Amino acid sequence: MFRKILVTAAMLAAFGHAYAAVDVNTANEDALRGIKGIGPAKAKAILDERAAHGPFKDPADLGKRVKGLGGHTVERLQAEGLAVGPAGAAANAQVAASAQTKGAAASADASKSNPSVAVKK
């Protein structure tokens, strides 16, 4: 029973994460810092670059313009909920939905391999 509750909580958290995308072109410092992997210095660097040169076109543009954000780092941040423009928000929702589907399949497999048995006292 505890396992079912835990799996349900994990699925709800993953589902909620799909709607928690933060658009780098509209977010303030607090919203950026809410993304795992972005601290105060990186959030300030993103905001300063956006203020100086305008919005980011795509993830590659973000990685190129902000020092310390390479391609792999930007991909990881996108997986954590960072979106770059409207297309980025749609892509993040797809990534989160596929992760949720994979999690549901894994929990279904786990419940098949470990059946529970009711014991009367």
Description:
By secondary structure, the protein is mainly alpha-helical. Helices cover 67% and strands 3% of the residues. It has one domain: AF1531-like domain (DNA polymerase, domain 1, Orthogonal Bundle), CATH 1.10.150. A two-stranded parallel ribbon has the order 1-2. The two termini are 17 Å apart. The model is unreliable at 95-101 (pLDDT under 50). This is Competence protein ComEA. Residues 1-20 form the signal peptide. Keywords: Signal. One of its GO terms (cellular component) is type II protein secretion system complex.
What's the gist of this structure?
The protein has 121 residues and is mainly alpha-helical. It has helices at 2-18, 29-33, 40-53, 59-65, 71-79, 85-113, and strands at 22-23, 82-83.
